[in-house]
# Entry
Amino acid sequence: MRRGDANCDDGNVCTEDSCNPATGCVNAGSSGFGGITTQLTAVEGAVGAASPAALAPSLAKVVRTKTSAIRAKLTAAQAVAGSSAKREGRMLKAATKAINGLANAIGKARKGRKPKISASLADSLRARLACAGVAVEGLQAELAR
# Structure
């Protein structure tokens, strides 16, 4: 994920931080389909950059596969947005379930005698997935109106 000027980073992974020369720091919340995509891209980037010591290759494959599945559900929801609220709602519900499942899998992989993921990477990925989940919930709330 592109982060803004280090002086504008608010430390919240759920915001897009940038510096506007005219107005100063901007810390915009990641919402909607774009916000979810940003968070999933950050997850994929962190997995791609992780060393084998921080992330077992088998878990890296699981994360990549599940993020790809989440993207497919979101793409399907976005494709029918405005034309079929019922189908969009089903796809968003499925995306939420997949996001929560991936977060749980990461949490489980962190435990045990031989963890498959470092604690710091697990925390970072789970924070990103939580942000994505909040953004999906926002889309679901918009549908309910």
